[in-house]
Amino acid sequence: MPNKIYLIKGDITKQNADAIVNAANSSLLGGGGVDGAIHRAGGPEILNECIRIRNRQGGCKTGEAVITGGGNLKTKYVIHTVGPVWNGGDKNEPQLLANAYRNALKLAIENGIHTISFPNISTGIYHFPKDLAAQIAIDTVKTFLNQHEEPLSVTFVCFDDENYALYESLLKEK
Ligand code: AR6
């Protein structure tokens, strides 16, 4: 199976990929946005696993990622990663966002995942500029897939029209 990149507009909690990615926060205790939607749809099992991870390693740092089961979701796994809060752009935000995508992809490969769906990490409550975030997401995923032979298909799931349009044009031009 060749590595592929797909784009859809919709709700990531409805995806039946092997794994969906959650734009979490360092506490791993849930929140609003896509994090809230995933925990609502996935049920308490996911949060319980997050609490166990938090008790073991003290949460998840910005740019890092952890994995749990998918609870009541169609997906087998949820990979929780923490994107950076946008703070003007000179606090390493671009590198930290790339790390979040890269570390989620690494965990996917380590767990034998073949299909993974990403939301537009950091572009909601964390206010990362959408155009720069889309560029970083696409570049990081493409580079990672080029560097790995394991079969892995990546779907970007955009919830809002602006992100969808940005991804559509960036994926077309590259
Ligand atoms: N499916 C796909 N994408 C979604 C969904 C959904 N159901 N709901 C929202 N989005 P955000 P962040 C999009 O705010 O900026 C939480 O409180 C949304 O349109 O969810 O990384 C966490 O606990 C946006 O494009 O995440 C953290 O505290 C994208 O998901 C904080 O928010 C990310 O928006 C993380 O902020």
From TrEMBL:
Pfam family, one: Macro
SMART domains associated with the record: A1pp
InterPro entries: Macro_dom, Macro_dom-like
Classification via Gene3D superfamilies: Leucine Aminopeptidase, subunit E, domain 1
Superkingdom, taxonomy of origin: Bacteria
The Macro domain, residue ranges: 1-174
The protein's name in its UniProt record: O-acetyl-ADP-ribose deacetylase
